[in-house]
Amino acid sequence: MRTIDMILDMIEKEHSYKVPGDRDTYDKYNEGWSDAIGRVRGALQVMNSEPFEFDFSSVKSFKCRCGQKYINTGRTERSEK
Hints:
Blueprint: H1 2-14, H2 28-49, E1 52-54, E2 61-63, E3 69-72
Parallel strand pairs: 1-3
Antiparallel strand pairs: 2-3
Helix pairs in contact: 1-2
């Protein structure tokens, strides 16, 4: 997730919104650009907060370094909610 955040930061800086001292950044385009980046970040947070189911009989659950929580359900398919 850290890499995605870095990419979004770089994209957001292409059209920064409300940079003090830079009047050109106070326009509707930059505001929309910033809002869109915020929506992407929010969607990624929601996606990463939902558990992904797997079947490893010797493991009950674990939390990945990316923050994703995995729960062993004994089934082999991914849960679609």
